[in-house]
Amino acid sequence: MKLLKYKASGFTLVEMMTIILISSVSFLGMFYIYGDVSKKLEGDLARSEVKTYCNYALNEMANYIKMADDISFNIYDQNIQLITDGNYYGRNSFSLSSDDGILKNGDPIHNSTTRDPNNPTRFVRNHVIRYTSIEKNQFTRYKIRDWDIYSKPNVDGTTTNENSDVRKATLIVEMVVDIIMGWDEDIIIETLSFKKETFSPTAFIKYRNS
Asked: Distance between CA atoms of 20 and 64, rounded to whole angstroms?
């Protein structure tokens, strides 16, 4: 009787362990790359959001400064508050809230609305970017650290003498925003600064005639 011999083919234990090890390292590398790319994209999104939000807020305040008959200042939440008053827009205030960002008349500026010129009974929201500083899981994306409003200084940095009426009627609004992207607000990955310079014709006439 003839015996048939069969030769089994496959991987040895050492080969299987080697394949598993190589696969694990590859997956870990891919996971690290994905996490790094995802983190960078989220950071870029936060920067873009901050730039759009801050530029909108500064432009909105500039419009009210230009049309104001009277400009004054107050203190809100330990920060300076801008108050504009005039026949066109009426009396309005702009202030900084640590939780809600820039406020217009006490409400977040991204919720502000204006009357539709084509339909006086309809109000249109001015802005689509919300101030989303902290997410529900307390993950901090960014935060407005500080803002300041002051009259335009002279070339040498002083605030007196040369062209004093023009200078006093020109307001500069500055905002400083920290990009954090983490749970620890003390760890800042980048700081962005924004500045808007606005001349108020009404304020200039007021200072000129005083």
From this structure: 66
Residue 113 lies in a domain: no
Q: What angle do CA 87, 89, 93 make, to 5 degrees?
A: 115
pTM of the model: 0.73
DSSP per position, 127-169: -------B-TT--EEEEEEEEEEEEPP-TTS-SSSTTHHHHHT
User: Would 119 be classed as within a structural domain?
Assistant: no
81-116 as b/e, with b when 16 or more CB fall inside 10 Å?
A: bbbbebeeeeebbbbbbeebbbbbeeebbbebeeee
Q: Answer yes or no: is 186 within a domain.
A: yes
Residues of the domain holding 27 = 17-90+133-209
Ranges of the chain with pLDDT below 50: none
Residue 204 maps to a domain: yes
**Domains identified in the chain, total number:** 1
N-term to C-term CA, the chain: 126
- The set of residues, in sequence order, having a beta carbon less than 8 Å from that of 160 and lying 6+ positions away, is 154
* Tens digit of each residue's pLDDT (9 = 90 or more) over 169-209: 889 999 999 999 888 888 899 999 999 999 988 878 877 77
